[in-house]
Amino acid sequence: METLKANKIDVNTYSNFEEIIQKNVELDVSIDFEKQQMYGTVQTEYEILNPSLNKIILDLHGPDISEINLITEEYDEIPLEYEIYDKNEDKEALGTPLIINLESLKKENNDEYEKIFKDKLVTINIKFNTNEKCNGIQYLTKEQTHSKQYPFMFTQCEAIQCRTLFPCQDTPSVKAKYKVKTSIESPLTFLFGGIAKSHYSDSSTKKKIMLFEQNIPIPSYLVAFVAGDLEFAKISKRCGVWAERGLASKAANEFIDAEKYIEIAENYLNHPYEWQTYNILVLPFSFPFGGMENPNLTFVTPALLAGDRSMSNVIGHEISHSWTGNLVTNKNWANFWVNEGFTKFMERKLDKNLLGEDMSNLESIVGNNSLISAIKMYGEDSHFTSLSPDFSGIDPDDGFSTIPYEKGYQLLVYLEEKVGEDMFREIMSKYIDTFKYKSVDWTDFKQIYEEYVTEKMNRRNSRKILNSIDWNKWVTEKGFPSYKMEFKSKYTKEVEDLIGQFLDGKKNPENALKIFKEWHTNVKLTFLDEIKKDVKNFDEDLILKIKKELNLVEEYNDDVKALWYEITLDKKLDIEIENIKQFLQTHGRLKYLKPLYYGWINLDLESARTFFDENKYLYHPISRRLIQNKFDSQK
Ligand code: BES
Ligand code: ZN
């Protein structure tokens, strides 16, 4: 057999989507909590683009396949030959593609073979079940849930985990519509990220059946399932929250601004929210991200339930993806910044509208700090520090950092400064209108930008502006952005004042606790960031004094806690180690796990390792793998 090569447009898929493309996907799935399995069928209608197509290559990473049939117009099933290809070197990262052979059909059923090529359509049904190798799913025992009464399961497909649920063209270059049927034992609920169509109870099996549709074509990484003892609370006409029973009303209160965020984004982009409903699902703490923009159903970490709405920028971010990411999608993971940089940009526009420019600029400053430390962490020479990293043969999760977010954001602010806020807004709006339902790379945006500027400005000005922008340098160069952004916020002065007072060695900075407590979380984070950046100038006594004066970390939200713990670890102090242990047993967000484990490894490798080994079962398979990698690289 010839060797199999990854796709050229998207190096993280083996699928031959230039020859055949999935259009309509129908999933019929159930959960077996005892076996920790999702099982059922995936029936896909494909459009054939290449008239001499002889095989369909799908991505697969884990699930067992028991049957593959071609479905005829009369709903007859014709078995197809297939092979699971496991000779590729990158199978750890990309999986073992499924190759469906159409040559055998030609031999055995030529009529049908000719028909599909005449219609350029083929429908294939695959029977599958997941197993413990399927990293995109986590099962929680009932003891690991809020009520401790029922088990729970959820999926996380971005970046390339859809292939761990069922075989598919697992690439953001391809978009399809979905129809989903789920069935589950009452009183549990089994949701899909789409519009709920109907539900009924099956009288023979006593199971609850729910039907969902996603009629806006979506990339595979936006496929999402959750099953558990869930309840719903409404926020507005189109917004609501799902959470484990007992948590929904608290969550609805925390995320009350969802409707406002949607309206501001609609206004900014001059483009309606097309997805009809917007719900937020609060997961158990093992969820590895702050938020994930699954369509109609943003997934979030319960760490956002701070009680004071201080983490609702995450909601603004995920809502923004409804346009940047979910309507207009990066066509491969090298263009990830086109999803995340644009969404960061939108997130800060929303915050500017809700909280003012000083606050939104402060977020840009905090973001810039995280950009600098991420570039230092990778080393300026690493291709991961560029906006177009090379993901050949590796799982894009392994190159995940704030760089595409913050460097991408800064490029957009740079482009905005060139043409002014009003024109830039019009360009964003045109970009969404032009590319919605499609997948793009950054040059598609560049083209819109250049066309718009050329059309709207006089020749001299447009030339001058366009000639001054070195897109390639911004997008392909490694290391720090060559153009240094200045973000100004009145809050930085307040932060400097308090830091200065501590550094001055005054016994008790005046009103320190009162000032600190009244600050918005972002200001608190900036204060801690400043200490972290300059930690060698804070000796142990001063750290202890700051801890005592500011009552760290008792009453603050998880972002503040985690950053304070990082500082103590950077300082190689074990003063917070008991709190850190407790935190690591109740938080699964990678944004916290990574720096805390990395810091602890620097402080005391062996105790960190022992603790991780004892507690890793709490974490999501994705987090477990990424933290394990860090320990493995220590040997
Ligand atoms: N789409 C991302 C999460 C993601 C990225 C999952 C890559 C898997 C692979 C999501 O929109 C996101 O960026 N979440 C952030 C929110 C923050 C930037 C406000 C998070 O989880 O921290
Ligand atoms: Zn995002």
Protein model, in words:
With 635 residues, the chain is of the alpha+beta class. Helix content is 40%, strand content 20%. The longest helix is centred in the C-terminal third of the chain and has 26 residues, at 590-615. The model has no long low-confidence stretch (mean pLDDT 97).
Cα radius of gyration in angstroms: 25 Å
Strand order of the largest sheet: 5-4-8-2-1-11-14-13
Specify the helix fraction band.
40-55%
Return residue spans where pLDDT drops below 50 for at least 5 consecutive residues: none
The biggest sheet, with number of strands, parallel, antiparallel or mixed sense and barrel status, is: 8 strands, mixed
List of distinct ligands in this structure? ligand BES, zinc ion
Mean pLDDT: 97
Number of helices: 21
The count of DSSP E runs of length 2 or more, i.e. the number of strands, is: 22
Structural class: alpha+beta
Overall geometry comes to globular
Beta-strand residue percentage? 15-25%
How far apart the termini lie comes to 38 Å
